[in-house]
Amino acid sequence: VWLAMLFAAPIATTTAQKFAGQPLVDHIYTADPSAHVFNGRIYIYPSHDVESSTPEDDQGSHFDMKDYHIISLDKIGGKVTDHGVALDIKDIPWVGRQLWAPDAAYANNTYYLYFPAKDKNDVFRIGVATSKKPEGPFVVERQPIAGSYSIDPAVFGDDDGSFYMYFGGIWGGQLQRWDNNTYNPDGQLHAPDEQAVMPRVVKLSKDMKSFAEEAKEVKLVDQDGKVFLEKQNDKRFFEASWVHKYNGKYYFSYSTGDTHNICYAVGDSPYGPFTYKGIILNPVKGWTNHHSIVMFKGKWYLFYHDTQLSGKTHLRNVKVAELRHNSDGTIQTISAHQE
Ligand code: FUB
């Protein structure tokens, strides 16, 4: 028994220290972690960052990812499993380049992987792939989802069995090129005093592979009910949508991009409007900030990334921190930045 305790103690300590703000895996670079609980286990659907010869630019061309790996763990602070390649760019007929931030959902006894990528014309679309297992491998649909565009799909399953996809990202995510779901290759961000470009929401069909309706704008408003203006870049939407439900309210969280915050806004319907409440995660190391929020065994967790392992903005590592709601429903701000 003593011998067992001698060996057990250091292992437990190492695991706890690793969990405290440390990368969940360090053998590959991972980012944009979309976490879900399936079969009592946490599955994380991240981007798989890789070094590439593509030079850095304002369009994010240096985020030149080529496959997805799903990672999982059965307890926070426990062993993390990398399930290997779940989907490879070479198996996706419609994609030209850049597999960006994915998400997943479970319905119809099937796991669905949703992912944004540039098509052969360099226009971002959203694809879907299916598997009977949460970790894949996934079999991809031959075309992107009809009517889809831009980046960062986040799929939220409501209590009544409906699923909604939130998506969009400005600048390199191309959302400014879409007005009324119509593509304009020259589309620009709005003028500073005009309404900011808003994320989109759309209900998914029962088959989970198509939109049940036209995508709509998600209205993000301040405490006075006024929509955010383009110039309010400390609060306006940039990318990285996520929705979780807490005490019957819908929490829409997102990245402010060039001001690097993860903020949140609360509403009474999955379609919004969502009223701004504050910052969930202060800026992290690296330019991008992207997260997900999930409840596991009665506690809420924030999954996020930074660049601790590489010091390079396009080579990120995912992490987790506990997230706390206050009694009035607001969320305590997390500062995870480490020098
Ligand atoms: O990982 C590529 C892009 O960087 C994501 O789609 C954005 O949300 C940002 O994290």
From TrEMBL:
Residues of the site described as Important for catalytic activity, responsible for pKa modulation of the active site Glu and correct orientation of both the proton donor and substrate: 152
Q: Where is the signal peptide?
A: 1-20
Can you provide one Gene Ontology molecular function annotated for this UniProt record? hydrolase activity, hydrolyzing O-glycosyl compounds
Q: Which GO biological process entries does UniProt record here?
A: xylan catabolic process
Q: Which domain of life is it from?
A: Bacteria
Matching entries from Pfam families are given as: Glyco_hydro_43
Enumerate the UniProt keywords alphabetically: Carbohydrate metabolism, Glycosidase, Hydrolase, Polysaccharide degradation, Signal, Xylan degradation
**Residues that span the membrane, as ranges:** none
Q: Which family does it belong to?
A: Belongs to the glycosyl hydrolase 43 family.
Q: What is this protein called?
A: Glycosyl hydrolases family 43
Native source organism of the sequence: Ohtaekwangia koreensis
